[in-house]
Specification:
Bound molecules: zinc ion
Oligomer: single chain
Strand content: 5-15%
Structural class: mainly alpha
Helix content: 40-55%
Strand order of the largest sheet: 2-1-3
Length: 87
């Protein structure tokens, strides 16, 4: 099992857009930057933490969007006056 440090040293940060890239990437997968990358472990770790936070925020937004769709269906159902509520 890889330790935290071997995972971190396998990563680097694009200096142009800040995206995390594999050490083996010749150019940034996000913006195609192919110059100097930031291999600093602390920066990589901070970037990992930030992307984790962004992901949980995205999940919350997804749940809210699902709720909105359901509310819209219910409003539509009530307007239509059909006998069965939407699933
Ligand atoms: Zn980039």
């Amino acid at each position: 099992m890889p330790t935290r440090n071997t995972v971190l040293t396998g990563l680097k940060i694009c200096r142009l857009c800040g995206a995390l890239n594999c050490e083996s990437n010749k150019q940034c997968y996000n913006c195609a930057w192919h110059g100097d990358f930031d291999p600093d472990n602390e920066h990589v770790l901070a970037s990992l933490r930030q992307s984790r936070d962004n992901r949980s925020r995205t999940e919350q937004t997804g749940k809210l969007a699902g709720l909105l769709v359901r509310v819209k269906k219910l409003i539509h159902w009530r307007r239509e006056g059909s006998p069965h509520p939407p699933s």
